[in-house]
Amino acid sequence: MQESDGKRMQWVDHMVRIRDDRDQAAFAALFAHFAPRVKGFLMKSGADASLAEECAQEVMATCWHKAHMFDPARASVATWIFTIARNRKIDVLRKQRRPEPEDLGWGPEEEPDQADVMALQQESEQLGQAIAELPEAQRELIQKAYFGDLSHSEIAAQTGLPLGTIKSRIRLALERLRHAMK
Amino acid sequence: MEQKITHHLTDEILMGYAAGTLPEAFNLMVATHVSLCDECRARVESYDAVGGAVLEQAPGNNVSLTPGSFEATMALIAGGAPDEIRTQHPKDMVLPKPLQDYVGGGIDSIKWRAIGMGVKQAILPTSKDASARLLYIPAGAAMPDHGHHGIEMTMVLQGAFQDEDDYFARGDVEVADSDMHHTPVADIHEDCICLAVTDAPLRFQGLLPKIAQRFARI
Asked: Which CATH number covers residue B67?
């Protein structure tokens, strides 16, 4: 196992400890890594430093409160935190409601299969690496799209985004979830 | 599961939804479609994963937190989770959950307004940068011919419609841009209900629809 794979699984493990044991040490580690990134993301998205700080704290508090909603067979911890930060951005910066799709259930009903979790986490890592290795200009375009510096017509089709495997993996997790609910 | 959906949302729209940069009306379209379409749900979640990678790679080391940030967060946590007001509407056969939230209930709660030739609409409350409305088109009836002036997306919720090129059933979305000029017709078997969103006012051709447009805010 590569060191980075281990890292991603380590964040998953932290989330489990936060969820099951309300483990403050695990939360402190998560906070130290992600809170500055969330703040940076919000500042790039147009928030001033004090608003970004306030929102970053709220986002991290939400991670604690909603730890039971995190499904490691469908998202990496970074992805999950990104979605919370994004929703906060829409709420606070854009002052809009964000309609969410119908839930497929109440989060993960039981412990997801460990092999599925490993595979999804690994593919998230590979996606991250692939994005890091894109030509500078293209990577910047993707970042701008997520920071809201581009209108949706400017984003156009982001070719070169290697979404294939992760998409199939998520699709598989969704099918299992639907199956489990029957 | 539902019958197979064959007309999906575009990557740029799904990516915009994941990035959180779309107007509210477009977000409503994506949330509604994704409620019925596992394919697009998986695509949205993979664009979420791109967002996760962007967040992970964003330089966190040159952004410093306010001193006492962690303690302040722990105090927030100690204050308890904020109340989430989530209205639970009973399952509706036509309207997926995200639409029910905007209508304030199921299909019987829609406040239709006639806009002529049997067609009815209900405008949904979204932010002004784009508009969302439900359309009711009697079986076999044509929508007034209209050109587009931006992006328009139309998703079938009940019945079906066809235009010159294609057939759209429940869950299918037609994505049209300003180049398109078409005349959708509702399928003869059932009245058609659609969700339509656009980031520009539609322009109907012909005198009567033009007058109606002034009153109907199409």
From this structure: 1.10.10.1320
